[in-house]
Automatic annotation (TrEMBL):
The protein's required cofactors: NAD(+)
Sections of the chain in a coiled coil: none
Metal-binding found in the keyword field: no
EC number(s) from the headed UniProt entry: 5.1.3.2
GO BP annotation list: D-xylose metabolic process
Phosphoprotein is among the record's keywords: no
Species per Swiss-Prot/TrEMBL record: Thalassovita autumnalis
Source lineage: Bacteria, Pseudomonadati, Pseudomonadota, Alphaproteobacteria, Rhodobacterales
Protein name: UDP-glucose 4-epimerase
Length: 324
């Protein structure tokens, strides 16, 4: 199914980021030509350094896209900081990236008659009052809270894209991505997987926020990328909004146990305050992903975590930053 994407010219906004750079690798493997657009705010040129003559455009999507990019068949919008530490550091920039940036990319897609895939997020469900969350759930977002720049920015972007579909009959699809992890996550981005892996490798206590009873489902990046490819490649999906993530729910405390066991250290934890507005539960209903994309994740948590541990142990830049 994803072979439909071969020979297509595909703009990947945010292609120097964690998920975006894996998507670029997968597109190349399928025979597509990615055009990477990024302002390197949270991305890293090193994630693209193995590519043979990549087309990279340094550009901030809050400004209209340069016409010099030329026509493309498909636009992926992954350009937005995703880690709470990053998106809360400059909330206005996050908001503008999400809303103005999505507008600029959609306009570019419209001009070129291109299909578009938007990376939305499980954060549109906020701190959900129902679980699992299906795509029809409208969510419980604290619109004035410290996460709102991201949550409401992504919600506004979804609204904008639905209006682009209604106004111009554009072929736009929306992936609501749930917690994704894997190699190339930044060691210091503050998210729970890199924090715990780093702390375990350093022999330090794992910083558990609250009592660690809040839940998440962790999806390995290769699975998330496969879902994004199917969403971009397949015909007949105009206007589809679909959850992409793992539905294996676990507490943050149980993640700490798993990481310590895999690194081979006794579990020591440090109790920390629960961040403001931290969702207490999160789990996708994947019925639609299965029905419409024929997709569900397949990587068990232990094997995915082993990949991250190996990456943190092997990458020389990461090794330099680790105090071991
Ligand atoms: P990331 O921060 O690693 O990647 C984002 C990329 O976008 C970076 O390369 C960054 O430099 C670039 N970028 C940011 N602002 C930009 C701007 N104004 N103009 C151009 N480029 C810009 O994040 P990620 O984890 O790879 O997430 C990618 C996308 O997936 C994001 O849209 C995010 O909201 C979404 N998402 C990710 C997760 C996850 O668990 N990783 C979960 C839900 C949604
Ligand atoms: N968390 C934690 N310790 C950490 C980092 C995060 O207990 O060192 C918790 C955080 O409070 C949240 C969950 O882990 O409940 C996932 O956090 P992350 O920042 O990875 O992603 P989120 O789902 O909040 O966007």
């Amino acid at each position: 199914m994803t072979s439909e994407i071969a020979r297509k010219r595909v703009l990947v906004a945010g292609g120097a980021g964690f998920v975006g750079s894996h998507l670029v690798d997968a597109l190349i493997a399928l025979g597509a030509t990615p055009v990477i657009l990024d302002n390197f705010h949270t991305g890293d040129a090193a994630f693209l350094s193995h590519l043979d003559q990549p087309e990279i455009i340094e550009h901030d999507i809050t400004r209209p896209l340069p016409a010099s990019i030329g026509p493309v068949d498909l636009v992926y919008n992954l350009a937005c900081p995703a880690a709470p530490k990053h998106y809360q550091a400059d909330p206005l920039r996050t908001w503008r990236t999400s809303v103005y940036g999505t507008d600029n990319l959609a306009e570019f897609a419209r001009v070129h008659g291109a299909r578009m895939v938007q990376a939305s997020t499980s954060e549109v469900y906020g701190d959900p009052l129902v679980s699992p969350q299906s795509e029809s759930y409208t969510g419980n977002v604290s619109m004035h809270g410290i996460r709102a720049c991201y949550d409401e920015g992504k919600r506004a972007a979804e609204t904008l894209l639905m209006d682009m579909i209604r106004s111009y009959d554009m072929d736009i699809r929306i992936a609501r991505i749930f917690n994704t992890y894997g190699p190339r996550m930044a060691l210091n981005d503050g998210r729970v997987v890199p924090n715990f892996v780093r702390q375990a490798l350093e022999g330090k206590p794992l910083t558990v926020y609250g009592h660690g009873q809040q839940t998440r489902c962790f999806c390995y990046v290769a699975d998330t990328v496969d879902g994004l490819l199917r969403l971009g490649a397949n015909d007949g999906l105009q206007g589809l909004v679909v959850n992409i993530g793992s539905d294996v729910e676990q507490t943050v405390y149980s993640l700490a146990e798993a990481v310590a066991a895999l690194v081979g250290v006794p579990l020591q934890t440090q109790d920390c305050d629960m961040p403001q507005d931290d969702p207490q539960v999160r789990r996708p209903d994947l019925s639609r992903a299965r029905d419409r994309l024929g997709w569900s994740p397949s990587t068990p948590l232990d094997s995915g975590l082993q990949q991250v541990i190996r990456y943190f142990q092997d990458d020389h830049r990461v090794k330099r930053a680790l105090s071991v």
